[in-house]
Amino acid sequence: MKAKSRFPDSYIQDYRENIGKTIRNRREEKGYSQDELAEIMEIQRSTISKIENGKFSVSIDYLVKFAWYLDLEIILLPKEK
């Protein structure tokens, strides 16, 4: 098995930002404000804001809740080479 190169510092932050943008876009498409979504998910509005802005490491528990309430699907796929 070939060794991977050094883990890039920006890799995780890039994912956080992409996930946050996806959640924000979908929330807006569904017509929810951050306050409304926070209320039905039973979390703080500030947590949603931090997640949408890539400032908070979202847990799998929150990802599953976002997927449920926003009709999203969580998929892990192998990278294309």
Estimate what percentage of residues fall within beta strands.
under 5%
Based on secondary structure, the structural category is: mainly alpha
CATH superfamily: lambda repressor-like DNA-binding domains
Which regions have little confidence, pLDDT < 50, spanning 5+ residues? none
Averaging pLDDT over every residue, what do you get? 93
Class in CATH? Mainly Alpha
The tally of domains stands at 1
User: Could you please say which CATH topology applies here?
Assistant: 434 Repressor (Amino-terminal Domain)
Number of helices: 4
Q: What is the rounded distance between the termini? A: 15 Å
Instruction: Give Rg in angstroms.
Output: 15 Å
List the secondary-structure elements in sequence, H or E. HHHH
The residue fraction in helices comes out at: 55-70%
| Envelope shape | elongated
* Number of strand elements: 0
CATH architecture: Orthogonal Bundle
**Strand count, sense and closure of the main sheet?**
none
Strand and helix map with partners:
Blueprint: H1 11-29, H2 34-41, H3 45-52, H4 60-70
Helix pairs in contact: 2-3
Structure notes:
- With 81 residues, the chain is mainly alpha-helical.
- The chain has helices at 11-29, 34-41, 45-52, 60-70.
- Helix 2 (34-41) packs across helix 3.
Descriptive keywords:
434 Repressor (Amino-terminal Domain), single chain, 81 residues, elongated, mainly alpha, 57% helix
